[in-house]
Amino acid sequence: MNKLVLLALCALAVSVAYAEEEKFTDKYDNVDLDEVLKNERLFNSYYKCLMDQGKCTAEGAELKKYLPEAIKTECAPCTEKQKEGAKKVIKHLTKNKPTEWKNLMDKWDPERKYREKYESRIDEILNS
């Protein structure tokens, strides 16, 4: 095998492995989710952003950017703090804001492809 081809294959393998290990930015990991969830004005700002019904803050735009990948990959690129935050938000929305939860699910998973896949996990989150 040509050395150049071998080198290119090695570089490709390294880049694929690196891409699989990449995490989402942790720049916004310190957003106070409890404050967002208990403050209607803050919550509505994020909700409207995610529903394409209002402007997005920098944090909301970042969330919106990464949400499809997080849904598709079971949050594989999420940091641990993001995974815990997702559980907290899911628990709060399903218990306290079921209409908004349904609207978000309909928007971000219109084919119900992932919703059914994650149903048992959501039940676990609710019972934790």
Shape: globular
Q: Name the poorly predicted regions.
A: 1-20
CATH level 1 class label: Mainly Alpha
Query: What is the domain total for the residues?
Result: 1
- The helix content, as a percent range, equals over 70%
Report the average pLDDT across residues: 79
Using DSSP, what is the number of strands?
Answer: 0
Signal peptide: 1-19
Protein name: Chemosensory protein
InterPro entries: A10/PebIII, OS_D_A10/PebIII_sf
Keywords: Signal
SSE arrangement:
Blueprint (H helix, E strand, L loop, with lengths): L2 H19 L11 H6 L1 H11 L7 H15 L7 H17 L1 H11 L4 H14 L2
Helix pairs in contact: 3-4, 5-6
What features would you describe in this structure?
This is Chemosensory protein. Keywords: Signal. It is built from seven helices and no strands. It is mostly helical and 128 residues long. It has one domain (33-127): Antennal chemosensory protein a6. The model is unreliable at 1-20 (pLDDT under 50).
